[in-house]
Amino acid sequence: MPHLGFTLLLALGASLGAAFPRDALKKSCSLSKYQFLVPHELKAVQKMKEQFEDIMLLSDRKCNTRLFHRKWNIAELSVPDRVMLVEAELDLATAMLMLPADPAFAKTRQQPLTFLTQAREDLRGCVATEAPSHQPSGKLRHWLQKLQTAKKTETTGCLEASAILHLFQMLNDLRCTALREQCT
């Protein structure tokens, strides 16, 4: 008889699961897992950045983009602005990490790409649930326009270099967004 109760419980759970898709149950935005980044993720990003810097030493790239040199700090932005900023930064980073690369670098960037892609998807969920109609502040709007201009005017190599060399700034921005309070 206990077997029958367990079977009924499983059937009820399955029918409720079908009635309420997982996405519908996800009502809030939780970025708490990004408040303290896991050391092995940080090491993977550092290893990738160092390998990329070695590759850059062998090239003669001349880049003028100053996309990540901002006159303001992320702490000056509202939480919805922070979410939008970090989502745009991670969009750029993941797009650049998906570019074709030599096999050694492609392998090194796989773990950071997976981590950054997951963070970007989590942020997209936050935009959808917390601020679907949020209009960016003047500071953020100006930076987003600067990003769009850079995507049109800079070479892919320069955008890739800018994104990879500023990954730790992006990770700090992600951490500050997850904290939802003032940070430096």
From TrEMBL:
Keywords attached to this entry: Antiviral defense, Cytokine, Secreted, Signal
Pfam families: IL28A
Secreted keyword on record: yes
GO molecular function, one term: cytokine activity
Annotated Gene3D superfamilies: Interferon lambda
Subcellular location: Secreted
Record GO biological process: cell surface receptor signaling pathway via JAK-STAT; defense response to virus; innate immune response; positive regulation of immune response
InterPro entries: IFN-lambda_sf, INF_lambda
Signal peptide: 1-19
Domain of life: Eukaryota
Gene Ontology cellular-component annotations: extracellular space
Principal place of residence: secreted
PANTHER family assigned: INTERFERON LAMBDA-2-RELATED (PTHR31943:SF1), INTERLEUKIN-28 AND 29 (PTHR31943)
Family membership: Belongs to the lambda interferon family.
The protein, known as: IFNL3 protein
Organism name: Lophotis ruficrista
Highest classification ranks of the organism: Eukaryota, Metazoa, Chordata, Craniata, Vertebrata
Gene label: Ifnl3
